[in-house]
Design goal:
Blueprint (H helix, E strand, L loop, with lengths): L2 H37 L10 H4 L5 H23 L7 H26 L5 H36 L7 H14 L8 H8 L4 H15 L3 H20 L4 H22 L3
Helix pairs in contact: 1-3, 1-5, 1-6, 3-4, 4-5, 6-8, 7-8, 8-9, 8-10, 9-10
């Protein structure tokens, strides 16, 4: 696999695993709230039955996260960021996430085993440990994902001119970052292209399709670039900036006509 391909796999697996973990965390939090409401106690005073405790985490989702996207993410991160003498912070965060989720997976398996333990005293001891362990471990993984995301956002501009990144984020980015960024793909683009944001991103995608002869795809991307230029003009800080954006918009229109001729 080439380096540019690894970069896209890294982005894809990071954001997919980010979304999967937070879905798992939300599911856990909702179940805890439901049990607390059902028993009419504060969550810290919950004393769940063995079969109830085993439902707090989705074992299949946890295994899929650790054995799927996280394993591939860790591998891509090591290959891209462990070439230097000192690994990048992003790689350290990813390694810690993998380690913590692995521990969570093993602990959950043990819980399921203990829930069938015939010794109530042993189960009670184990439950008291888990009652502290689960929320602490989950919060730690959430914080690690936050640190990893912030570091990745700093790294993104170094990948922004790669053709695979340009096309793949355009084609698959909206779904990929749904629930990660409030403004969706446009917000991801502000991190990828700090000086140009969505206008630069859609322009690069359109030009890439045009250069490869994909007329219909290029026209669609040019339309999005032109719409981004219109938004940028409305928020331009001064007349000079507005004129510059207007000139870019006119050039986008001319290139759109070239793409239209290919359809």
């Amino acid at each position: 696999m080439r380096t540019d391909e690894r970069r896209w796999v890294l982005l894809r697996t990071f954001y997919q695993s980010y979304r999967s973990f937070h879905a798992l965390l939300d599911h856990y939090e909702q179940l805890v709230r439901d049990f607390a409401a059902s028993y009419r106690v504060d969550r810290k005073d919950l004393a769940l039955q063995p079969d109830e405790l085993a439902t707090l985490l989705d074992s299949h989702a946890l295994s899929a996260l650790r054995d799927g996207d996280l394993t591939l993410l860790r591998d891509m991160s090591h290959r891209l960021f462990r070439t230097a003498e000192v690994p990048d912070r992003f790689d350290s965060h990813v390694a810690s996430i993998y380690h913590e989720v692995s521990l969570l997976k093993e602990e959950h398996w043990t819980i399921r085993e203990q829930s069938m333990n015939a010794d109530p005293a042993e189960y009670e001891r184990y439950y008291r440990e888990v009652n502290v362990y689960y929320p602490k471990r989950l919060r730690h993984v959430r914080n690690l994902y936050g640190k990893a995301r912030r570091r990745l956002e700093q790294i993104l501009p170094t990948m922004a001119r790669n053709r695979i990144i340009i096309r793949s984020t355009y084609l698959f980015g909206e779904k990929l970052v749904q629930g990660v960024y409030a403004e969706g793909l446009d917000e991801l683009y502000t991190h990828l292209y700090p000086d140009g944001g969505p206008l630069t991103a859609y322009s690069l995608a359109a030009d890439s399709f045009l250069e490869s002869g994909f007329g219909a795809e290029a026209v669609a991307a040019f339309d999005r670039a032109i719409a981004a230029a219109d938004r940028a003009m409305r928020s331009a800080e001064d007349e000079g900036a507005a004129r510059e954006i207007e000139a870019r918009r006119a050039e986008l229109g001319r290139r759109r006509e070239l793409a239209l001729a290919l359809t």
